[in-house]
Give the backbone structure.
Amino acid sequence: MRVLLVDDDPETAANTVSALDECDSLDVTAVADPTAALDAHAESPFDCIVTEFEFDGTAGLDTLLRVRESPNPPPVILYTRLDSEDVVAEAFAAGVSDVVDKRPADAQTAVLAHRVSNAVVAARQSTELGELHAWLRLIADQSLVGLYVIRDGRVEFVNEYLSNLLGYDTDEVVGRPITDFVVEEDRAIVDESLRNRSHGSVESMSYTVRVRNYDGELTALEITGQRTTVDGEPVVVGTAMDVTARLESERLLRRSERLTRQIISSLPDMVFISEPTELDVVYINDQFEDAWGRDVSPLYDDPSSFLDLIHVDDRDQLRRAVDEMFADIRDGSVDDQYEFEFRFVPEGSGTIRWATARAVPLLDENGDVTNILGVISDLTERISHERELAQQNARLDAFARVLSHDIRGPLAVAQGRLELARELDDDSHLDHVERAHRRITDVVEDVLSLARDEHSVLDASTVSLADSAATAWDMCSSNAGDVRCEIGELPVVDADESRTTRLFENLFRNALQHARNDRADATDRGDDSELVIRVGALPSRRGFFVEDNGPGIPSSIRDRVFDSGFSTKGGDGTGLGLDIVRQIVDSHGWIIRVADGAAGARFEVLFDPVGEAGATV
């Protein structure tokens, strides 16, 4: 039972909602004023409304009782402090269903819950009785079926509906053999039916015959009959309904179904129809086989078998989403549309593809779900294009920041050496200035290429990761101090050599900046152990790692370390180093994640992300 609580006292409202929610049958929502209540009820009708009497000193009950103007209005219960009998009288006069005293006691919320349940049950029963009475009145005023009584093969009684259908006055029909009105080809059906029922071999029967009216027009009637006894004599009583239009509609429907199947089969998307309460496929087009690489026939026997092709990281989430949709339908709280996005791997293929599934509940005239229509679209090309655009925009946006970050080091070296050359009149320092300028030029060219050429990784060459790591360490070791770098056996991959070197360089600088500073603090405390940076291959050579024996990365910030501008060094850090690492990894189609190391920080780069649950892409 969906209950709407209207109370402008937040604390009281929260306590009331909490108490009522303990009742398994109640689902309570709270709003602060009558206008909001009317809007909420208009958007999604509630079974009962519980309200205060005044809001900000103004009586709001009249406004709230406008819900009586809606179809099947819910009961309204006044929940307020009953300081005056006039309030009770005024509330009932205004049309509330019940009044409950809002005393600060747990028992009162139990009373309120009981009164709400009673009011909702009474309202539902009243609605059902009203509908029943409406039907009875409608049947009494104007029958929509023909009624007849036949004795000894002749018409004993017909109602006005049936006589009008035949085109005769009632007294022109009574007394005549029923077969007078049936086309000759169908008379044998009527004779056989009447004979069997008159002699008691069949109690009831239903069949369809064609009759010809006074004007000679043909009408198809669905006849039902029941054998009974009147005044000791056997008679047949029953109904007759004009099904001419229905039979024609069924013919057109069969034709429409054939056309619909042809249209659906020609759509580029996968289309399926399921039963309403569980995933039970009743139809699926052939596009499933084209897109997913699997025959459709097993899906009729085991619809959930398609989950075998869903990416392992998305499988449980998709299964839960589908279960929740069917739970909504069973609970009667169905949405207009459900949408799921997931990855799948076609059978016999190692390529990951993206898809979106839109499930639309199909409703009958009563609003009940009859089937689920699903459409699954392959989004791989669109998502790839969007990612390419996003990456390109990100590279262009980060252009200046990346240049600033990577140029800062060699620029500082060049400035310092130039000052020494001037002060000491020693030209040997100019060699260092020249090397720093070459490094600045390399960085500018690499970053310009990264910003402009979104497909540059396709021109990759064979790169020894061990050589790239060694080159990167040479760039960093001059400022490393008492730090040791151990580079183990690493795989050879297709990659951009310059960017791969810069990837290692930024990871090394990250370790030196963070781990070395903390190591210095540890040395001051008497811990003189050496800082070691290690580089090695992951199991099965699926990637590589860079780790140090520093203080590590707290779990609370691991999800943020690759964010642009994030730094734990305050004004001393730019927060771009690991962002550049992530960009380089992304450009190669790899993934990078922060992992738990034996000690210190550990970064793992994986060449193949499939099956790596929880990886940071």
Q: What stands out?
A: The longest helix spans residues 380-424. The mean pLDDT is 80.
